[in-house]
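Researcher: Here's a chain I'd like modeled. Treat it as a single chain, no partners, no ligands.
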Amino acid sequence: MTMKRNYYLVLGLAGGMIICLVTGTFMYLHVFAGGPAKIINKNIHIYVSYLLSIGVIFHLAWNWKWLSRTTKEVFGRKGHE
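Model: Modeled as a single isolated chain. Structure tokens:
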């Protein structure tokens, strides 16, 4: 179950990142100069970034033990290499 949950979360995060990349590029290049399309693009960018932030928090929480253990392993062995 845990592996499946992480799989779907990572897929969602990757999809959200692609959406943010595309909408951010559109804003940078002024693809939609004005009007409703510009507002919709900006709103998509903002709300997807909120969802990404929540997803990253879940990802860190679900993998906290591994992250903590690996960090100790990486930084806890001073002078052994």
